[in-house]
Prior knowledge:
179 residues, alpha/beta, Dihydrofolate Reductase, subunit A, four-stranded parallel β-sheet, 30% helix
Amino acid sequence: MHTSLDGFVASSKGALDWILIDQDMFDIAAQRTSDSDTALYGRVTFQLMENYWPTAALKPDATQHDIEHSKWYNNVQKIVLSRTLKQSHFPKIRIIRDDIIEEIKKTKQMTGKDILIFGSPTASHTLMAENLIDDYWLFINPIMLGSGIPLFRSAEMIKLKLVESKVFPSGVICIHYQK
């Protein structure tokens, strides 16, 4: 997840235009997606993704990242945490409306690859509060927004271990922590 130095994942108006991204960051994302078979989203992020990724590879100006991520998106199981979306009739989309915590715990016990959560601050807050996130991959952007949608909300203390970090020429720092 991208975050500002002062801990916001979007501006107060929801804007993401401050995020810096380059091919090296796309390479990290590609590695993470290749290690996963499930994507978890909140409703808002899912609707943004669903409006872009299914056909991104078909656009005339599609980048290699767009082509690869579109293919992954179209093949991966998607879980959407939402109390307002109706049940999906699409086979690779599962909407969890009730008993979110128990359903995620059950899902984590199933065999398979990793489950990735992209963006989705509200869903992330719910999972963090229950200590259900095993790895944190954060891209800290060299900007202070002053206000906005916070990455973290007050929760119980969660101790983390730094696994790796990388500094990009743009000044973005990628950090990977595990529980």
